[in-house]
Amino acid sequence: MASSEPRKTYIGLSVGNHNSVIAIINKEHRAEVIANEDGEHKTPTYIAFSGEEEYHGSQAKHQFVRNAKNTIQGFRDLLGKPYSAEVTKHTGSARVEANSEGTPEFVVAMENDEGESTELRLTAENAMQRYLGRLKTTAEEYLGRKIDGAVVAHPVGFGAEQKKAMEAACQAVGLELLQLIPEPVACALQYGLGADASHDDAKDTVAVVVDVGGSGADVSVVGVHGGLFTLVDSVHIDTVSGEIIDEVLVKHFAAEFKKQSGIDVLEQPDARPIRKLRQAVEVTKRTLSSATTAPCAVESLAGGMDFNGTINRTRFDIMAGKTYAPLVEAIDKAVTQAGYTPAQIDQVLLCGGAARIRKLQSKVISLFPEATVLRDDAGELDEIIASGCAEQAALIAQGIVDPASGDAAGVQAKAVAKSLGLQVSAEKLVPVLLKDTPLPASRTIKVSLPAGEKRAYIAVSEGEPVPPPAEDESDDDDDEEEREIAEEKEHILYRPSKLLAEMVLELDDADENTKVLVKFFVGTDGKLTVTATEPVSGKSITAEIPSQ
């Protein structure tokens, strides 16, 4: 008998420092981004005030050009933080002061019909409540029904106070928060990592999530084991961002306009022309990710003169290329801190609007061997995180995931500290249970006996990644031949670091078809149990290794 309980409507929500996205899983079981009242998939994370009117999203961003002092932007990253000059540097142009409690407070002016001006003070939490309320209304108007709950993504660097502030903002506007999940986990969900894991095939994957947003970039190492996610390590930088890349284009087109008109908008006391240009180059940058040339057009840029310019992708790559170096360094740092080498990374997942730049992508993948897959195939890159949240919301709606389980399905569970496997030689280990696999964990590997052997020798060892060989820059022909021979040899990813146990399983009736199943099991107490079984005879042997 079908349940009489009405179907609940859950959404996924990504609140960025510059833009926000709402998504839902549609009837075709695919993530669909909800358009706002302007028909756009991205809603600028802006709030503006003019007279007695309050504007949100695109309308607020337009207000920023001519009414910057009453436009609020960048409030997400101020949630739960005390006031300081450092935390307020990406907050647009509304004045920010410390209130009596030492927290940041935006100060804007309101004016009634009689021309009387009043001062309005909003904390980041107040701003977030107003903005979330507008997003909730947008979703309900688009879908024509009430929103019952949401999975919301948070930056990987959010601390307990910031998460608490986001939860409080959702509660204040009547938006039930099903889960608050890290952005890189939401990204991995949308790319489908772990979706087809089974008891027989855990689909173990180690991925690097590269998220390049408007005001900074996050590089995170995510382990996905048996459908469970572990956020291993992350690095945040604010030296690579959409804003910084935009500034390259702003300077270029400002120089072109100066040649045409003699007006230097970078030196104008009136900041409106430069704000117009900054908004225009956002479109130019996006176009260059899919076209070889892109226009930049601004009506009445300065002195009553229009501006029309173009730039090709090659010139843009040359100008912007040097800005990508800190991102490359951050990726290398994140992988190293996580205890991996580039060869152990299975996939690199891209998200964030600036990550669609082709030259930036080529810089990222150059760090990894050919076996590592660079992915940007899960939809528009600035919609990935919201779509991943919608995927998680759908799992909750289906009862597959318990919303009380934590940040995401299994994320931050106890995990295997070091990779465990079978020692083949002094220099080679076949990994069975990878580091960062959530506990309890079980994996089985099938082993063949050497020809003529009547016993199975099982050596269980901890393993460590094998660092990539140092590059030899010599041009000598003999050295080149040696390098080619070396490349043809098997590339070993793991080597033994500590022998844990040795077992010998006697198999008198073994022949060339005999196989031995070796099962590794690590409980939540960290104890490792390894059992080797020959299924035909039923013979087996077990070793137990206490938690190290």
Structural commentary:
The protein is α+β, with helices and mostly antiparallel strands and 548 residues long. 26% of the residues lie in helices and 32% in strands. The protein has helices at residues 57-66, 124-143, 160-172, 183-190, 242-261, 272-288, 313-320, 325-337, 358-365, 384-397, 477-488; strands spanning 10-15, 19-25, 31-33, 43-44, 46-50, 53-56, 71-73, 95-98, 104-111, 117-123, 149-154, 177-182, 205-212, 217-225, 228-237, 293-302, 305-312, 347-351, 373-375, 419-423, 429-433, 441-448, 455-465, 494-506, 515-522, 528-533, 540-545. The strands form 7 sheets. Strands 1, 2, 3, 4, 11 and 12 form a 6-stranded mixed beta sheet that branches. The mean pLDDT is 89.
Count of DSSP-assigned helices: 11
Number of strands: 27
Q: Give the termini distance in whole angstroms.
A: 52 Å
Rg over CA atoms, rounded to whole Å, is: 28 Å
Low-confidence stretches: none
Mean pLDDT: 89
State the helical fraction.
25-40%
What structural class results from the helix and strand content?
A: alpha+beta
Question: What key attributes describe this structure?
Answer:
548 residues, alpha+beta, 6-stranded mixed β-sheet, 5-stranded mixed β-sheet, 11 helices, 27 strands, elongated
Task: Give the topology.
Blueprint: E1 10-15, E2 19-25, E3 31-33, E4 43-44, E5 46-50, E6 53-56, H1 57-66, E7 71-73, E8 95-98, E9 104-111, E10 117-123, H2 124-143, E11 149-154, H3 160-172, E12 177-182, H4 183-190, E13 205-212, E14 217-225, E15 228-237, H5 242-261, H6 272-288, E16 293-302, E17 305-312, H7 313-320, H8 325-337, E18 347-351, H9 358-365, E19 373-375, H10 384-397, E20 419-423, E21 429-433, E22 441-448, E23 455-465, H11 477-488, E24 494-506, E25 515-522, E26 528-533, E27 540-545
Helix pairs in contact: 2-3, 4-10, 5-6
